[in-house]
Amino acid sequence: MKSLKRVMAFILVFVIIYTSLTCCSLKITNASSNITTRRPINIGVLLYSFDDLYTSIIKKTLEDIQMKNEDNVKFTFYDGKNNQSIQEATINNLFKTGNVDILLVDLVNRSVESVKNVLDKATALGIPVVFNYLEPRAEDVIKSYNKAFVVDADNKQGGDLQGKIIIDIWNANKSSIDKNNDNILQYIMLRGSDQNIRPQYALAAINTKIKTEPLQIVNANFNKEFAKDAINSLFLKYNGKIEAIIADNDAMAIGAVEALQTYGYNTGDLSKTIVVVGIDGMPEAIELINKGEMEGTVSQDPRDTAEALYTVGMNLFSNKTPTEGTNYKLDKMGVTILLPYQEYTAGK
Questions:
Q1: Which of 236, 247, 262, 348 has the most CB atoms lying inside 10 A of its own CB?
Q2: How far is CA 151 from CA 49, 134, 304, 340, in A?
Q3: 6-10 long-range contacts, Cβ below 8 Å, gap at least 24?
Q4: pLDDT of residue 28 exceeding 70
Q5: Distant-in-sequence, close-in-space partners of 47: CB < 8 Å, separation ≥ 6
Q6: Do residues 66 and 41 touch, judged by C-beta distance below 8 A?
Q7: From CA 295, how far away is CA 344, in angstroms rounded?
Q8: Vertex 281, ends 277 and 282: CA angle to 5°?
Q9: Model's pTM, two decimal places?
Q10: Banded model confidence at residue 138, pLDDT cuts 50, 70, 90
Q11: Domain layout of the chain by residue ranges
């Protein structure tokens, strides 16, 4: 009888130990499984061109965000090369493979049709989409999908501030700017695209205080070299009549300054200076302004844009409201964040 009790006791101890070890093994296996199956959130970033100065800073800021959150997010960047066909092929392939959790999109073609094309595909897969800068805004299309949003800038404010820079310098140095003494500002406008309405706001602001005459309106595609080539040619064509160059981004403004400098202008001598203003607040533009070779810019920090794109995208992915945990200002339709501009001139 004692022997039987010893056997039963031994069996009971063995069962307890075996059960404990088995449960522990299962827990370890499950934990290991959780670790191996966990992956970062894949964020596809479609940029209209890696060559654009502003866009390059957005890209660098997102790369910095990934370094700080390498276990949580993974960005993959796609260069649209300022070519609609290339970007559309990339978009179609991304949706076909489905290897993306969030899309941050800076379209080459910002038409309503292009926006709708992206959202039709995203809606079918439930992928959040955050657009960077849309003009026209396409609010109705954006509102049709509850995981779509836009990060933009207050374009009216940007145009108004750019106009203010022109007005202030005209009032301060009219005698040196108004080369033919006709009380009219002769200017060249460097536009980024025909769709962008920001230059209209700048001109409207200028025209409240100054009579103006457009010598040429050039679509330089937000590109420094295009702008440089255009001003090289127009400087000779207008032979001293150009009094101001209004550029729709700093890249084009920088290109304009470089072109003028080949003719001995905009090197710091007020008597041989053509007023050049830009938008974006790029470091190279700030340097030119501080040296007196460019009049001013209107700054909207691309690092803030990148942070907003990332924050809104992650909120949408987590089924939160797009602006949760932020103080972002929305437009009246409630589907666009409007990031503010700031004026920058020498001494400010």
A1: 247
A2: 18, 8, 10, 11
A3: none
A4: no
A5: 55, 58, 59, 77, 78, 79, 80, 106
A6: no
A7: 9
A8: 105
A9: 0.79
A10: confident
A11: 41-146+302-341, 156-299
pLDDT tens-digit readout, 239-295? 999 999 999 999 999 999 999 999 999 998 888 999 999 999 999 999 999 999 999
> Got the DSSP string for 247-302?
ESSHHHHHHHHHHHHTTT-SSS-GGG--EEE-SB--HHHHHHHHTTSS-EEEE--H
Residue 331 neighbours by CB under 8 Å, 6+ apart: 137, 139, 152, 337, 338
Task: Give the type of residue at 83.
Answer: N
Per-residue pLDDT tens digits for 298-311:
998 899 999 999 99
> How many CB atoms sit inside 10 A of residue 147's CB?
19
Amino acid occupying residue 332: K
pLDDT (average), residues 208-218: 97
The answer to whether domain 41-146+302-341 and domain 156-299 are alike in fold is yes
Residue 87: strand, helix, or coil: helix
Strand, helix or coil for residue 97 = helix
| 131 Ramachandran zone, left/alpha/beta (phi>0; psi -120 to 50) | beta
Least-confidence region, from 11-20, 133-142, 328-337 = 11-20
* Contact (Cβ atoms closer than 8 angstroms) between residue 341 and residue 298: yes
224-256 per-residue burial string, b: 16 or more CB within 10 A, e: under 16? bebbbebbbebbeeeeeebbbbbbbbbbbbbbb
Q: What's the pLDDT score for residue 345?
A: 95
CATH code of the domain made up of 41-146+302-341: 3.40.50.2300
Tell me the CA end-to-end span of the chain in Å, nearest whole number.
99
Tokens of 308: 């907003």
Amino acid at 158: G
| Residue-level length of the chain | 348
Assign a CATH topology to domain 156-299. Rossmann fold (3.40.50)
Does the pLDDT value for residue 212 go beyond 70? yes
**Phi-psi category of residue 11: left, alpha or beta, with phi > 0 → left and psi -120 to 50 → alpha:** alpha
Q: At what angle do helices 198-207 and 155-177 cross, to 10 degrees?
A: 50
